Amino acid sequence: MGWGVLEDKRYPNIPGTVNLNEKVDASKLEDWEYEEPKKRGDIVLQPQPSDSPNDPLNWSMGTKITILMILSLTAGVTVSLGPMITTGFDEIASTFHVSADQISFSIVGLLQLTTGAGTFFTAAAAVVWGKRPVFIIATIALLGTSAWGFFAAVGLECPIKVYSSNSSQSFISLTIMRVVQGFAAAPFETLISATVSEIFFVHEKGKMLSIWNLFVMGGVKLG
Q1: Coil, helix or strand for 97?
Q2: Which residue range forms the structural domain that includes residue 184?
Q3: Closest by alpha carbon to 199, among 69, 60, 73, 72?
Q4: Is residue 186 part of a domain?
Q5: Which of 137, 119, 129, 95 is nearest to 187 (CA)?
Q6: Which SS3 state, helix, strand or coil, does residue 8 take?
Q7: Alpha carbon distance 120, 106 (integer Å)
Q8: pLDDT for 104-156, tens place per residue?
Q9: 10 Å Cβ neighbour count for 108?
């Protein structure tokens, strides 16, 4: 016991882990529940894949990499939505006749706030309906809000009827767009690492997560 944490006597090993140095003796082999762990070469696969070809762990490496690259590229573009605006604060403020503080709060701050808040809902939705529909809906929403932002920024008639030709109303439209865009960006902040864990084995996760991180950090810098 340490710091009030009691050992769980039902589970001698930490759940979700595997003992790679476990020795198989005669008693193990006689136990009908024991199965020889599946390996790739000398590497014990963890988590253990099922025999179903529909198991994501059994997909080809090409399919897995394609999924990873699509999600990583989308995540890299998504994270650039916040920092890419900061260099144009003065121009945006003069265009909409508002202060730089208002721009910072409405265009960047609210985006970050709704992105963080949206992760709770998107994580729950991914558990109920699966990650694929969440990613697809979020991507379509990001595309739609980007078009919405274009109409609001250039002063054209926006399909979302929340502003007139008045610049202050146009800024309100742009602010609402960023709020919606923040929610749409939420899945790409949290669900990709979970997706990597579901389609790659433990010994592959480090390299795959580094590819995702490369796209994310590159998206911030390029944005």
Answers
A1: coil
A2: 59-222
A3: 60
A4: yes
A5: 119
A6: coil
A7: 22
A8: 898 889 998 999 999 999 999 998 999 999 999 999 999 999 999 888 876 54
A9: 19
